UniProtKB/TrEMBL annotation, chain A:
Keywords: TPR repeat
InterPro entries xrefs: BBS8, TPR-like_helical_dom_sf, TPR_rpt
Annotated Gene3D superfamilies: Tetratricopeptide repeat domain
Membrane-spanning ranges: none
Chain segments carrying region Disordered: 95-156
Gene: LOC118417819
Pfam families in the cross-refs: TPR_16, TPR_8
Protein name in UniProt: Tetratricopeptide repeat protein 8-like
Superkingdom in the source lineage: Eukaryota
Keyword Ligase: no
Organism name: Branchiostoma floridae (Florida lancelet)
UniProtKB/TrEMBL annotation, chain B:
Alphabetized GO MF terms: patched binding; smoothened binding
Protein name from the UniProt record: BBSome complex member BBS1
Any Pfam family matching the protein: BBS1
Domain of life: Eukaryota
Keyword set includes Acetylation: yes
Subcellular location, record wording: Cell projection, Cilium membrane; Cytoplasm, Cytoskeleton, Microtubule organizing center, Centrosome, Centriolar satellite
Subunit structure: Part of BBSome complex, that contains BBS1, BBS2, BBS4, BBS5, BBS7, BBS8/TTC8, BBS9 and BBIP10. Interacts with the C-terminus of RAB3IP. Interacts with CCDC28B and ALDOB. Interacts with PKD1.
Lineage, broadest ranks: Eukaryota, Metazoa, Chordata, Cephalochordata, Leptocardii
Major subcellular location class: membrane
Keyword Transcription listed: no
Length: 519, 615
């Protein structure tokens, strides 16, 4: 595509500039209208005419950067390498409720028997964002093996692949070579000129994804600015963060905050703390930010997310409600509160929130599925199946399995075992790794008396989702019935491991222990 | 004998001061250093423990009384010694032995009672031993009461008379007495006859010759003794003695003249007595007997009216208000009304050794103390365990009351001959509630059930009003959904989309996992034969994938015979040959040789490959 563009390059660029209009002005206008491709074309034309046109050069850099700009604060997914080779770990065994790594240790979390967990053992979140699905796996094997489908895959390290993908450019070959050859740039010269240095930095950081050079430039520039420009400090911190130097990042951000309080800086600082696994400090920083920016939604959301991560749903909901107080169209807040109500046995209230989302224009299969479930559990039967129908119609391949799974639950609720069986099988047809469906199918098979089948299904569910306690317990119970006490014991142990308070598993374990102790 | 002043461990020197010290400690409980952290120590101060005080006694032989009228209560213990000698009445002032009086026979009970109205009000000590009651005043022997003799069996009397007159020889006497004993009238024989029969044949003539000249008397033995206030209920009012005897009788003695005021007859031998009321007004005696029954006697009744039949032999009997609490040999604590209705039964963790009533008057607190053979003393208020005292040895005798100048003192003697004194802390409060047995506390806890919202109620209203329409709508939708599901299901079956086969002839299950981070992945296909007995043969695994994206090491895998129930893993390497950071699905087919239709299909969502990092 680029190739063809270059051939009729002059013509295309000329076509973009209306007659009699200054091309640079046109480019600026295009930039402002967010027509970056066109802006780049015009700038390239200008630069061909005069390679030393600083304005055009800067504008082109900005246009290229904007194309790939990613909000650094929000997008963050820890790579496998960061998680498992974390040498910033402060305490191996953190005190309860002070670490995101062992969220189960904080008290008051919902029981996995009531609120199902995601593949990593976190309670299902109302809103999918980076990190809510994944959690932190315990071992390398788990990290590599756990559901590695396209939509939940985890990058090896956040420093390489994922960022390339998010801001693709630099790795894709450009036929006429890179716009700026970083190796030949004299950073000293640019650092002295602030107006050029800032766009250049962003270009290097976002477009080229070359953190090392970006850091060099930022270091020189902040020195040039006599360490008085908070912006450079924040950029330095970004570079340090990317490089994994969290303490350095923290220092820069704190120093930047002394000079200038910015929401963004607070968010970034908290991100650093979360990465260092200090959620309580992060909350403190958020609260400090809220003193300067009362009612700032992003800060409030940040607090809520951290509480969510700590399994403290009560506080999380409190802050999400606060968010809604200031921004009543906040989708994440509405979704999370709705989910909380759904799992605390108030589906009718959850229904209200989901309907609000629908009114706001969110129109996707997940929402319809949720509304359908809420209707069913709130006894509004006339709406239930209608919603599921729509959900199926809207569903993509990714969430088809979940929708069939939920319909299966409704079928179980009305006692239609045959329909439930079909639904769970359909869920498996769409997603072969749907462990919950395997488990439920196993239970149905067991009821039908086909023990061997049930056993195989439980085994598969165990393998697919070792964090779920249900398949372990079911397998243990089944094995116990069949007389395979050793397998039963092993499975019951696993079940207790993933859900220590599970009464049935514990009593089964006790029964087995008594049996083993008996002569 | 310096047994009494042994200093054991860090327990304070046994002296009257020890108690006072303990008292001072109690006022500043923070400053005290506890000898050991027992559970009961939260409520009890450890005042004294002497494991070598060589006391062999039981609850009935322990009494606490102000013997000198000086406000300092002494501890009176009738020591059973070895059972043959060294039987002594010991009086402790504080924890030092004050006096010792030798008792001729084995003591069975000790009581203190006021027998006159003289000042200073000093109580007398009555020690029951054999058929006698020895009364001590001011710790000096004062009076000996002998139980009235019983009628001697005329045949026995006749036999001994003949023996005295040498009409029959020893051999005949022995045979006649033995036949008399065999008649079942063994209980009515005199001690002399019984002793005679126990002797070896060569000792018999000597015994008979020695004793045949003295008149034959049949005496009984006191088994239990307690006191009953005569006409006033004051603390220092004159009391009668109530005595239970081996001859199944209950005697009530006048304290001044020592004459039998009342005699009552029981069906069995009394073991434990409990008396309430005043002799002159109304009283009630609850007696537990050796036949495992409890009888209740009232003023004026010559024989018991009510009886409680226990499931096991009683080990202790105490009265709590109108109820009787009995500790039994089957490790239970049972409570009955005086009319014999059972109120509750508690199963105890160990055997009951002895029981004692804890009447803490300054607080108005009454409880039953039960000493168990697991070195614990349990305090029960009603049926609730309110406190547990751990002791160093098994407690065989207990007395709760005023000791020294301390109201709430608990004196315990142990199986090993030790003496323990504990003092109830004045600030200790006994929870009325249950701490272990009975229904668990969680049962009374209110569950945190979310309240039904107004919204819910509104919706229920809607449901109630439009029930028919809603139901119809739901049913219609349900039919449609079933149809949709069935259609999809059939489609999935036709294309063998599901990872487990629907064909009953080929019961197979497939699951696949992808390991690795790219560009090379390892694809593992797990096949399991889910049939119970039939093995699967002639199977193949093959893959369908986008050849522009992936390259497979083995595009077809031969499957060996699949044994039912086992999991087989087949692996192949997948190379991602695109650098476009896109991912696709790889389909896995399990095929039968010679058939084009796959048995099962698995869809594997491949992860996005990491770009190859060239260093």
């Amino acid at each position: 595509m680029m190739g063809t563009m270059r051939q009729d390059f002059g013509a295309a660029a000329m076509a973009l500039v209306p007659r009699g209009m200054d091309p640079l002005y046109t480019a600026l206008s295009l930039f402002r209208r967010r027509k970056f491709e066109d802006c780049v074309t015009v700038c390239t034309m200008l630069l061909e005419k005069n390679p030393y046109d600083q304005a055009a050069w800067t504008l082109k850099m900005r246009a290229l950067t904007e194309q790939l700009y990613v909000d650094e604060v929000d997008v963050d997914e820890e790579g496998i390498a960061e998680m498992l080779m974390d040498d910033n770990a402060i305490a191996e065994v953190a005190r309860p409720g002070t670490s995101l790594k062992k969220p189960g240790t904080s008290s008051g979390g919902p029981s996995p028997g009531v609120r199902p967990t995601s593949q990593s053992g976190r309670p299902l979140s109302g809103f999918v964002r980076p990190g809510t699905q994944g959690g932190r796996p315990g071992t390398m094997e788990q990290a590599i093996r756990t559901p590695r489908t396209a939509h939940t895959a985890r990058p090896v390290t956040s420093a390489s692949g994922r960022f390339v993908r998010l801001g693709t450019a630099s790795m894709l070959s450009t036929p006429d070579g890179p716009f700026i050859n970083l190796a030949r740039l004299n950073f000293h010269k640019y650092a002295a000129r602030q107006s050029l240095a800032k766009p250049l930095f962003e270009y290097i950081f976002h477009h080229e994804n070359d953190v090392r050079n970006a850091l060099e430039l930022a270091a020189l520039a902040t020195e040039e600015a006599q360490f008085k420009d908070w912006w450079w400090k924040v950029q330095l911190a970004k570079c340090y963060y990317r490089l994994g130097l969290f303490r350095d990042a923290e220092r820069q951000l704190k120093s930047a905050l002394v000079q200038q309080v910015m929401v963004d800086t607070y968010l970034y600082l908290c991100k650093v703390y979360v990465r260092m696994d200090q959620p309580l400090t992060a909350i403190e920083v958020f609260s400090q930010g809220l003193e300067h920016f009362p009612g700032e939604v992003s800060l409030l959301t940040g607090i809520a997310r951290i509480y969510d991560g700590l399994n403290d749903s009560t506080n999380a909901v409190k802050f999400y409600k606060e968010v809604l107080h200031h921004d009543n169209t906040h989708v994440e807040a509405i979704a999370c509160i709705a989910t909380h109500h759904f799992y605390t046995d108030q589906p009718e209230i959850a229904l209200r929130f989901f309907r609000r989302l629908l009114q706001m224009g969110v129109y996707n299969s997940e929402l319809f599925c949720n509304i359908g479930l809420c209707c069913f559990y709130a006894q509004q039967y006339d709406m239930t199946l209608n919603c599921f129908e729509r959900a199926i119609a809207l569903a993509s391949d990714e969430n088809m399995a979940d929708i069939w799974y939920n319909i299966g639950h409704v079928a179980l609720g009305i006692g239609d075992i045959a329909l439930a069986y079909q639904c769970f099988k359909l869920a498996l047809a769409s997603n072969n790794d749907h462990a919950e469906s395997y488990n439920n199918l196993g239970v149905l098979e067991w009821k039908k008396g086909r023990v061997e089948q049930a056993r195989a299904f439980f085994q598969t569910a165990q393998m697919l989702a070792p964090i779920m306690f249900e398949p372990h317990y079911n397998f243990a119970a089944l094995s116990e019935k069949m007389g395979d006490l050793q397998s039963s014991y092993i499975a019951a142990r696993k079940s207790v491991e993933s859900f220590p308070e599970h009464m049935d598993s514990n009593s089964l374990l006790k029964q087995l222990k008594d049996h083993f102790a008996m002569l | 004998m310096d047994l009494f002043d042994e200093d054991v461990g860090n327990i304070s020197q046994p002296s009257p001061i020890a108690l006072v010290e303990a008292k001072r400690e109690r006022r500043q409980p923070r400053n005290q250093s506890k000898p050991a952290s027992h559970e009961g120590n939260a409520k009890w101060l450890h005042a004294h423990y002497d494991p070598y005080s060589t006391l062999y006694t039981f609850s009935s032989c322990i009494a606490l009384a102000d013997l000198h009228g000086d406000g300092d209560n002494k501890l009176i213990i009738a020591n059973l010694g070895t059972g043959k000698y060294d039987m002594k009445l010991k009086v402790y002032k504080g924890t030092t032995l004050m006096t010792e009086n030798t008792i001729i026979d084995l003591p069975t009970a000790v009581c203190t009672f006021f027998m006159d109205t003289h000042d200073p009000r000093t109580p007398a000590v009555a020690v029951a031993s054999g058929p006698y009651i020895y009364v001590y005043k001011n710790l000096r022997p004062y009076f000996k009461f002998t139980l009235p003799p019983l009628d001697v069996n005329p045949v026995e009397q006749d036999l001994w008379n003949q023996a005295k007159e040498d009409k029959i020889d020893v051999q005949v006497l022995k045979e006649m007495l033995e036949s008399l004993r065999a008649d079942g009238s063994e209980g009515t024989l005199t001690v002399r006859s019984l002793r005679f029969l126990m002797l070896d044949p060569e000792d018999m003539p000597t015994f008979a010759n020695l004793h045949k000249h003295s008149p034959l008397k049949r005496q009984t033995v006191i088994t239990c003794m307690t006191t009953l206030k005569k006409s006033h209920s004051e603390e220092d009012a004159i009391s009668c003695l109530v005595i239970g005897t081996e001859s199944k009788d209950i005697y009530i003695l006048d304290p001044e003249a020592f004459t039998v005021l009342t005699k009552m007859v029981l069906p069995s031998v009394p073991v434990f007595l409990d008396v309430t009321g005043l002799y002159d007004v109304e009283f009630r005696i609850v007696v537990s007997c050796r036949n495992g029954n409890i009888y209740s006697l009232k003023k004026g009744s010559k024989a018991p009216k009510y009886s409680i039949e226990l499931s096991s032999q009683p080990v202790g009997l105490q009265r709590m208000g109108k109820n009787v609490v009995v500790g039994c040999m089957d490790q239970t604590l049972q409570c009955y009304t005086t009319k014999g209705k059972r109120l509750w039964v508690l199963t105890l963790p160990a055997n009951v050794m002895t029981m004692e009533l804890m009447d803490y008057k300054s607080r108005g607190f009454k409880a039953i103390m039960v000493a168990l053979d697991n070195c614990e003393v349990h305090v029960y208020n009603e049926k609730y365990l309110v406190n547990t005292i751990k002791t160093e040895d098994i407690v065989t005798g207990m007395k709760f009351g005023r000791f020294g100048r301390e109201d709430g003192a608990l004196v315990m003697t142990t199986k090993g001959g030790g003496l323990i004194v504990k003092i109830l802390k004045r600030n200790s409060v006994f929870e009325e509630k249950d701490s272990r047995p009975g229904p668990p506390a969680a049962q009374n806890q209110k569950l945190n059930i979310p309240k039904k919202t107004k919204l819910f109620v509104d919706q229920t209203m809607r449901e109630r009003e439009n029930a028919v329409t809603m139901h119809r709508m739901f049913q219609r939708d349900l039919y449609r959904l079933r149809l949709d599901a069935a259609r999809s299901y059939v489609k999935a079956l036709e294309t063998s989309m599901t990872p487990m086969s629907a064909d009953p002839l080929e019961p197979l299950k497939l699951s696949a996992t992808v390991n690795g981070i790219g560009p090379s992945f390892k694809l593992t296909v797990n096949l399991q034969n889910t049939s119970s007995a039939t093995p699967s043969i002639n199977l193949l695994i093959t893959f369908q994938y986008d050849e522009k994206l992936y390259q497979l090491q083995r595009s077809s895998i031969k499957v060996p015979l699949l044994v039912p129930g086992l999991n087989y893993a087949f692996q192949t390497l997948v190379e991602c040959i695109s650098d476009k950071a896109i991912a696709d699905t790889i389909k896995v087919f399990v095929l039968r040789k010679g058939k084009s239709m796959p048995i099962i299909t698995g869809n594997i969502n491949m992860p996005v490959s990491e770009a190859q990092v060239v260093v």
